[in-house]
Automatic annotation (TrEMBL):
Gene Ontology MF term list: kinase activity
Superkingdom of the organism of origin: Bacteria
Listed Gene3D superfamilies: P-loop containing nucleotide triphosphate hydrolases
Protein name: Adenylate kinase family enzyme
Keyword vocabulary terms for this entry: Kinase, Transferase
Organism annotation: Runella defluvii
Highest classification ranks of the organism: Bacteria, Pseudomonadati, Bacteroidota, Cytophagia, Cytophagales
Length: 160
């Protein structure tokens, strides 16, 4: 089975989940998979728990044809996952100014956001390179539906 993956990447609080919700309105046949969801479900904050989360994400992705994948884009596990699936992939980096990201992060914390269990410290800003540097860059300081529309407009026809 040929798979089509829209790989949505970006730092914490850049708006990945919000843009993906809008993107699903444009692309209803796509399943949305997030490593953070799998971390909440399967990880205990240890390296073994992290690998279990990535393994379960791989199992779920291998059952789907059209996938919107959400992660920071900095894990080598992401690269291994995508390379192990027979797929066409478009990499999308969501970006916003540091002040916007910090304000969103602070607002999330006030609302009781529970971060997934991690065995390493997370940083809301990128301090290491993306594993897929050749990405479409979309600014998320605009309304989420506009960011989603930009993503759809940039997709090759076989993704739609």
């Amino acid at each position: 089975m040929k798979r089509y993956i829209i790989n949505i990447m970006g730092p914490q609080a850049v708006g990945k989940s919000t843009v993906i919700e809008e993107l699903k309105d444009y692309l209803p046949t796509y399943s949305s998979l997030s490593i953070d969801w799998f971390r909440h479900m399967y990880s205990d904050g240890t390296p073994n728990g992290e690998m279990k989360a990535w393994y379960e994400l791989y199992v779920a992705a291998s059952c789907e044809e059209y996938i919107i994948l959400e992660s920071s884009g900095t894990s080598n596990n992401l690269k291994i996952l995508i390379e192990s699936l027979e797929c066409e992939v478009v990499h999308v980096l969501l970006d916003a100014g540091m002040l916007t990201v910090q304000l969103r992060y602070d607002e999330r914390e006030k609302m009781g956001y529970k971060a997934p269990p991690m065995y390493f410290r997370r940083n809301i800003l990128f301090d290491w390179p993306l594993v897929f540097p050749n990405s479409i860059i979309i600014n998320t300081e605009k309304p989420p539906y506009q960011a989603a529309a930009e993503i759809v407009e940039s997709l090759p026809s076989e993704f739609i």
